[in-house]
Prior knowledge:
The complex is a heterodimer of chains A (116) and B (113).
Chain A: E1 4-7, E2 10-13, E3 19-25, E4 32-38, E5 44-51, E6 57-58, E7 67-73, E8 76-81, E9 90-97, E10 106-107, E11 111-115
Chain B: E1 5-7, E2 10-14, E3 19-24, E4 29-37, E5 43-50, E6 55-58, E7 61-66, E8 71-76, E9 85-93, E10 102-103, E11 107-112
Parallel strand pairs in B: 2-11
Antiparallel strand pairs in B: 1-3, 3-8, 4-5, 4-9, 6-7, 7-8, 9-10, 9-11
Amino acid sequence: xxxxxxxxxxxxxxxxxxxxxxxxxxxxxxxxxxxxxxxxxxxxxxxxxxxxxxxxxxxxxxxxxxxxxxxxxxxxxxxxxxxxxxxxxxxxxxxxxxxxxxxxxxxxxxxxxxxx
Amino acid sequence: xxxxxxxxxxxxxxxxxxxxxxxxxxxxxxxxxxxxxxxxxxxxxxxxxxxxxxxxxxxxxxxxxxxxxxxxxxxxxxxxxxxxxxxxxxxxxxxxxxxxxxxxxxxxxxxxx
Lengths: 116, 113
């Protein structure tokens, strides 16, 4: 199989704090991971592409200094929401593509962030 | 940028009936994928169709792709209550640059028992 986990599954934080979300590929190596955001009753929007050992590529309109991405190993990418505000409350979903693979992305279960 | 459009946005049918959802996209693609999402949960990959394919089947699912019209459809036959979920198409661009998926807005399907 190809299992992707995310931690935590849900987090509540105060405005102004930073939150780190982990995305792990459990049984495969992933050179490339993707981070998506989904607001309530809306679709998923790609935020950034994370490549192991290099800087992430951010989509237009996504602040790289606010959403810090680190992909230090072939099985782990982290997304840190810095100085979170209520408007950052959302469902964050990562996906991972197998090293050498070109098509299928395997999605994590998502992390629900609520900023008070 | 969000490019996929799906219709209908919401669909309610009786159990046993067939459900058809449509999706359009704007750029050239390598493949198009369909996902299911239960409320507040992660995505479940349903089926992938490549740009050189026109139709694909998987169990009760049938997907078509018309690259000339930049559209795809997902047909679920003999629907069940457990099929109630939101369904999204996602296209993988064949252009250069970032290769994350571009998702459609989704169709919320309700199967009435």
